[in-house]
Amino acid sequence: MSFESSTRLRARLLTPAARNAARERIATVLDITGRPATGMPIDDLVAAFDSFARAELWLALAVLHGELPVASELRRIRRLRELDGSWAALGRTLRLATSGSHYPTVVVVGADTTLMDVSGLLPDHAPREGRGIARAIAREWGAVAGVVPVTWGLGGRSLRALTAVEASSIGLPAPRFDSSLVLVPHDSAYVLLGTVDKPRSSECLIALGQASHNATSSVGYGLHPLVSSQAYARQEGEERFSWHVAAQRSFAHLAVVGDSVIEHYKGWEQMLPAIGLTGPVLHEVPLPPRTSGVVDVERERSEWHALSRTVGSLIGIHQND
Amino acid sequence: MAIERIAVSPAELLRAQADRMDVVTRYFGLPSAEGADPLDRTIASLDSLVARIYSIRDDGELWLVLTALAGAFPYDRDVEHALRFRDDHTAIEFTDWVISASAISPSASGSSILPMRIVDSVPVIDVSSCAINDRQTGIQRVERETLPLWARDHDLELVAWSRRDGSYRSIGEKERRRVLAWGTHKSVPADHVDAPFEFLVPYRTTVVLPEVANHDQSGRLRGIARHSGNSVTAIGYDMIPMMSPELMPKEMGADFLEYLGVIKYSRAIAGISQSATNEFRGFFTAVSKEEPADATVVAVELPTAVPESELAIARPETDEVIILCVGSHEPRKNHGTVLHAAEKLWREGHKFQLWFFGGGGWGTDFDDLVAKLKRKGRKVELRKAVSDSVLWDAYRSASFTVFPSLHEGFGLPVAEALAFGTPAITTNYGSTREIAERGGCLMVDPRSDEEVHDAMRTLLTDHAVRERLATEARGIPLRTWDEYASELWKVLVDDVV
Q1: pLDDT grade, residue B385 (50/70/90)?
Q2: Among A54, A86, A103, where does a domain finish?
Q3: Is the domain of A200 the same as that of A179?
Q4: For burial by CB atoms within 10 Å, which of A47, A253, A273, B284 has the most?
C-alpha cells in the first residue's frame, strides 16, 4: 500500500472526534501559513507539507498534535518527507495527532501576544532561586497589554493559560484565555520567566528556540543548583535544573537578574562552544540596593517597577509608566 | 543498591576506634593511651588530641581526628559543624562535643574495623571503579593505560572506595592487576569484605581522581578537598551531564552535579582536550564569585592509543568502499544522521557498505532504521563489543569514517582513524574540531543533514580529496601514552605539590 493510500485510509477510519479535531487543526495550519484551502483538507495539507519551511513545519506539528514538537520528531518528519515524500510525513503526523482520545482546541497566538511562562512560580511548584523576583516581575508584566501568563499542560508538552485561581495566587489579573486551550505561538514572543526543569517541556522549548518563528527570551536568576549542588536536595529522577538551562541555551536573549550571578552565565557561555553553540545574548540587571531600617513600601514598589521595566525593555516587553 | 552491612560487635567497633585514635596520636608525636578498656583509651587519646587541635586550629588536623573517630571520611558539612564548634566554644565545651561525637560516630557513620594507615608521602590514586569491575569504557581505558606507567615511574598508593564505610581502602592483588595489568588479570567479583585490607587516610598529600566520583563519594570527597589539607586533583573528561541533558538517559546526571561539588574545591584539573578544558574553566568562572578557586585547569590531551605494530600492517587490497562509524547508538553519537545521509547516497546510486562498530545504545530509533534499510537490501553491518584488533582491522579496511557526534570530551574514533591513515568526517566544533584541524578530515555541522550527506558524497566520489586527506592523516604525529602519563603526572601531582 502506498503512503498516500495508507494515510487516506487512516483518515477515513478516524473517530468523529478525531476527525473533527483534525479538520479544525488542518484549517488552522492552512490559514496561518497562508496555504490554499480547497475543501479537501488532506490534499491541501499534503500540498502544503511539500513546501513548508522549518518554522512552518514546527507550527504545523504543534497545531496538528496539540503539543509543541521536540527536535527529534521534527527531524524525523523532515527526513521522512525528504526520502519518502509528503504523504509519508503526513501519515506519521496524523497517526501521532489522532492517537489520543482528547482533542483540546488549539489557538495560535500571533504578533500581538507575548507568552510569559510562569512555570515554577505557582504555589504548587517546587521553589527555586529568584522566585520572589520573578513573581514581582510577573505582576508588573501581567498588566501589560498582550502579555499572557502561561504554564505547561498535564503532559508537559503544551502551553496553556493559567486558571483564575493560579493567576490570583501570584497576584496576576484574570486570564484572557481559557486554561483548557492549547496555546501555540507563531510570529509571536515567548518569555521564560520561571523555571522549566521537566525534560519533556524543556525539549519542546529547545525546539521552539531552534525551529519556530518566535522571539524567545528568558530571565535568569543564577545557576545555583548546578554550581552549588551540595546546598540543594539531590536532584533525583528526571526533573533537573540542567533541563531548564538547556532550554535557555536556544533562546535569543537572557536577562540575568541578581547580584554577582552574571558570572554563572559567563562561565556557562564559556562551555557552550563544546556543543557548537553561542547561546543567548546575556544582559546583566542588578537588583535594587538593599536598605536596612524602616521599610519604605512605596520606594520598594517603584524600584521593582524600574527593575521589571529594565528587564522588559531588554527582551521586548514594554511597560507603561 | 543497598550498602552491605556486616555484623560487628560493639566491642570490636570500640577497639577499632581506640586503635585508630592511637594511630593519630602517634602520628602527632603524642603519648599513646594505655589500658585495656578501648573506651578509656579513646577518651585518653582525645584529651591530648583535642587540646592540640583546639590550640593549633589546623583544619586538617581536626579532619584527621574526626576521620579516625568515625572510621570514615566526614562529610564537609560535618567538618564545618565541628569547625564552628571549635571556633565558637570554649576548650572544655569543644572537648565535651568531641567526646559525644566519638560515642555516636562508629555506629552512625562509618563502621570500619580495618586497621588505619595514614598516607602522607605518596599521592593517593582513586581507582574505585577500575579496580572492582571489568568495564572498559573510555575512562577505564585511560586509567589502565596511564596508571601502569605511573606505577612504573613513581611511588603511589592505589585506593578504592568502600561504600559501606565511606572511606578509602587498600586494594587487593587481583584488583591491582585489573588496574595495572589489564588483559592478564582474571575476572573476579568485588571482594572487599573479607580481604585483609587497610583503611587508608590520605593526609597532606595529593588525592588524584582519574574517575568521576559517584553520589556516595562526593559529599565526603568534598570534605577532603575543602578541609583535610590534601590537594584533590582530577582528570576532566567532559561536562555532558550538565550541558547536554538531552543527550543522556533522563534519569542520569544527579551524580555528576554532586561530583562538581568536589571539582569546585580541587587544585588541578587536566582536561582531556582543549574543549573539555574550556568546559571546566567555564565551570570555575561560574563559581568564581562565590568560591574563588585556586585551581589550575589545563589541557593534557589524550593520546591516540594504537600500537605501532598495528599501524605497520598494510591496508587490505579491496574494491569495496566501506564507511565506518564507531560508537554506541545513542542520541549524542548522531547515527540517525549518518543513516539518513547513507540512504540518500544509496538512492543516488552510490555503492558502498556502512559499518557500525560499537557497544549498545538507548534513546534512538537506530535499530528500526537499520532494520528498514536491511529490508531494502542496503549493506549495513552492525558489530557490538568488538575487540581492539577487530576495530583496528576495520579502521584499516574503511575508505573513511564518519563521527558527527554532538558532544565529545575527546573524539577518540576520529584520532584512531587518522592514525591508520583513514580520512574522517567529523563535527566542526569542540574536541573533534581540534583533532580535525591537524588534517585528514572534512568538518561538518552535525546538526545539518545536508552537510553530512555532502561530505560523505565527496569522499565517495572524489578520490583526489580522499587521497589528500589520507596523506594528511598519515603525516599527523602520534602522541603516546608515555607522553600523556608523564604530562598528566606533572599537572596533577608535581605542580600541585
Answers
A1: confident
A2: A103
A3: yes
A4: B284
Task: Count the domains in chain A.
Answer: 2
Are both A274 and A290 inside the same structural domain?
yes
Q: Do A163 and A304 fall into the same domain?
A: yes
Give me the residue spans of the domains in chain B.
Answer: 10-113, 117-303+484-494, 308-474
Rounded to whole angstroms, how far apart are CA atoms A296 and B394?
Answer: 74
Say how far apart CA B217 and CA B222 lie, in whole Å.
8
- Give me the residue label for grid cell 559501606: B164
Chain A partners within 8 Å of B254 (Cβ):
234-236, 240
Answer yes or no: do A194 and A284 share one domain.
yes
Domain end among A38, A73, A103? A103
For the cut 70, the answer to whether the pLDDT of residue B2 exceeds it is no
Residue type for B156, please?
A: L
What secondary structure does DSSP assign to B165-212, as a single string? TTEEEE--HHHHHHHHSTTTS-------SSS---EEEE-SSEEEE-S-
CB contact under 8 A, B290 and A228: yes
CB contact (8 A) between residue A83 and residue B347: yes
Q: How far is CA A101 from CA A15, A20, A98, A184, A282, in A?
A: 9, 12, 8, 20, 43
What does DSSP say about strands A159-161 and B268-271: parallel, antiparallel, or unpaired? Answer: unpaired
Instruction: Tell me what the mean pLDDT of segment A77-90 comes to.
Output: 96
Tens digit of each residue's pLDDT (9 = 90 or more) over B315-343: 998 889 999 999 999 999 999 999 999 99
Q: What is the CATH number of the domain that holds A276?
A: 3.40.50
Residue B496 grid cell:
600541585
First to last CA, chain B: 37
| DSSP secondary structure code for residue B317 in this structure | P
Q: Are residues A80 and A146 in the same domain?
A: no
Q: Is the pTM of this model over 0.90?
A: yes
- Looking at chain B from residue 228 to 267, which residues have their Cβ under 8 Å from any Cβ of chain A? 238-239, 241-246, 250-251, 253-254, 257-258, 260-261, 264
pLDDT at B82: 93
Alpha-carbon span B425 to B437, nearest angstrom: 12
Query: Could B287 and A246 be called an inter-chain contact, meaning their C-beta atoms sit closer than 8 Å?
Result: no
Q: Show Cβ contacts of residue B134 under 8 Å, excluding neighbours closer than 6 positions.
A: B178, B187
Reported ipTM exceeds the 0.90 cut: yes
- Indicate whether A176 and A307 sit together in one domain: yes
CATH number of the structural domain B308-474? 3.40.50.2000
A184 and A133 co-located in one domain: yes
Dihedral of CA atoms B428, B430, B432, B438 in degrees, nearest 10, equals: 80
A213 plus A235 within the same structural domain: yes
Residues A267, B288: C-beta atoms closer than 8 Å: yes
The C-alpha angle with vertex B496 and arms to B494 and B497, in degrees rounded to 5, equals: 70
How far apart CA B431 and CA B410 sit, in angstroms, is 5
Q: Report chain B residues whose CB lies below 8 A from the CB of A236.
A: 254
3-state DSSP assignment of residue B245: helix
Q: What is the pLDDT of residues B61-109, one digit of tens each?
A: 999 999 999 899 999 999 999 999 999 999 889 988 888 876 655 444 5
> Which residue range is the domain that position A283 belongs to?
107-315
**Gyration radius (Cα) of chain A, Å:** 21
Asked if the Cβ–Cβ distance from B258 to A266 is below 8 Å, we say no
Tell me the CATH number for domain B117-303+484-494: 3.40.50
